[in-house]
Amino acid sequence: MSPDRAAIFAYLTILSGSAGRLVISLVYFLIVANTLTLGEFGIFATASATGLILSRLLAFGFVSPLYRVATVKPRLLGAYLAGFSALALLSLPLIALAAGLAYQMLFSGRLALLSFALIMLAEIVGWRLVEVVAIVNNGLRRFRQAALLVIIGSSLRTVAAIGFYLSGQASLGLWAWSYLGATLVTAALALAAFLPRARWRLRVRLYRRRMADAVFAAGADIVFYTQAELDKLLVLALAGERVAGLYAIAMRVIDLTAMPVRSFNQMLVQKIMQQRGLAGGLRRRILIEALIAAVSVGGLLGVIALLTPFPGALGRNVSEAAHLFLPLLLVPAFRNLVEYHAELLYARERTGSRIVLLGAIAMLKAALIVWAMTQAGGNWPLAMNAVFGTVYLLSAAVTYRLLGRAG
Q1: What is the torsional sign of CA 399, 7, 334, 46?
Q2: CA 213, 216, 218, 220 torsion: positive or negative?
Q3: pLDDT for 199-239, tens place per residue?
């Protein structure tokens, strides 16, 4: 990306939203992680991850054509918003069926069905709609509005967490209601105040041409988030709620440190989509990957540096999980680089290849995590570096080979 003033300003605008969200989300995370028991937080984090995966089925992936239109042909935005809304309603029965299967496989006997349903509604209907509005604004280069929406959403979720803490009833069932309430208020605000004005008209012939792209994009997103969240699901299944809670806390800290990288990825994707490619040879690719790795590891090192002299600074449950941070030190770099590779393939419209690669990554990661959890004993956190490092090598080799062919 050329360092012109407009690009720098746009990145800083997106980054300001991420920075604001980082601070607010940290407060939210600390309250929830330290108010629920470790077992309850592990179950909540895993259920939330499941909802995140299933939310990619909403509108059968029509978010991808919607974003492309907002970026390249904004005059068609109203027609595509109408199409997204109709397809979202049609997709709900499929999502409900998938959620029911997920509950029976992972959560039956661990989490009340009502609480699970509330968390699914929050992720699939609430937060996904907020994401869609933010995505549309980013596509239109309305970065300030998208950043403000993100900050407001995180703030409302934090207010809900504070109310939950002050209630004195630290149950997962009550938190599920609070979580849903915050997400629905945010979604209503997003639709009422942040959705760009456009004349909505159903134009079915437009959608037919884009449905293959939408379905492939949905498949790629589902596979991507499945491989991204697979570790949480497997740790819950193999090690139980308490270890899943400790691991979920560690991975949430890693997620929070990844926000600057995701802001960069977002700008890069737009640049590639608008210019139909991105100049730069091997040296530039190595430099970008090195910077992503440095930022990723540096964020986790900052948390470790804080907790070393002040082990209780982030709360009781986080302090119990802190022993995982140093063994997992390289995981943020490998994890964020795999996400970066997926964004590169999405921007170059290599959707089919992206699905195949992410599917291979998911299978490889599953096999390696089972090995780490069952064979590495107490060293399983350290073994996770080898798991994510191996996954990264596969991702890098295939991604750059595909991009090299694309030219």
Answers
A1: negative
A2: negative
A3: 999 998 888 888 988 888 888 889 989 998 999 999 999 99
Whole-angstrom distance, CA of residue 157 vs CA of residue 151: 10
Who contacts 72 (Cβ-Cβ below 8 Å, separation ≥6)?
273, 274
In order of 140, 146, 150, 251, the CA distances from 376 in angstroms are 48, 44, 40, 19
> Does the predicted TM-score (pTM) go above 0.85?
yes
How many independent structural domains does the chain possess? 1
Q: What angle do CA 372, 373, 375 make, to 5 degrees?
A: 65
How do residues 229-269 score in pLDDT, each as one tens digit?
999 999 999 999 999 999 999 999 988 877 777 777 777 77
CA distance 71 to 61: 17
Query: What range does the domain containing 232 cover?
Result: 5-406
Q: Which residue has the tokens 């991420």?
A: 18
CA angle at residue 384 from 363 to 236, to 5 degrees? 70
Cβ neighbour number for residue 97 with a 10 Å cutoff: 11
Q: Which two tokens stand for residue 331?
A: 């995981």
